[in-house]
Design brief:
single chain, mainly alpha
């Protein structure tokens, strides 16, 4: 990330501040890995390193879970706040919209063909047996 910011000539303090959350995401899991490599060492501190590794792993779970929750919350807030603006057609989306319209007939045909009610008994049986084997094996 920082290399890309350097290529784009972003202000260095702004770049360092903006990429700081990555440090907070990575540091606990890196510490957990470092502590776990020390568990089997001969220096007699295996129990302490095991504890520190477990604590770091829990901290990593809490930090990354918190960041993920915050990211989803902020994304949903922007969607709710700017719904009308986000829903308006944009010029750069025109190619995708045209492709979607061209594929509409294919999509309807696919939906009709793959409905459970339209499948033959033989195909239903194959699907049921495959699903059962997937669960069992």
């Amino acid at each position: 990330v920082r290399v890309a910011c350097g290529i784009m000539r972003v202000n260095i303090p702004q770049m360092l501040f903006g990429t700081l959350p990555i440090f907070f995401c990575a540091a606990p899991i890196v510490a957990a890995g470092a502590f776990m490599t020390k568990v089997g060492s001969d220096d007699g501190g295996g129990g302490m390193y095991s504890l520190l590794g477990a604590v770091s792993m829990g901290l990593s779970l809490a930090v990354n879970g918190g960041f993920s929750f915050f990211a989803v919350q902020q994304t949903l807030a922007v969607i709710q706040r700017d719904r009308d603006e986000l829903a308006t057609p944009r010029e750069e989306h025109r190619a995708v919209e045209e492709l979607t319209k061209r594929e509409e007939a294919w999509r309807r045909c696919y939906d009709q063909t793959t409905k459970w009610e339209t499948l033959s008994s033989c195909r239903k049986g194959v699907i049921i047996v495959a699903a059962a084997l997937h669960i069992v094996c």
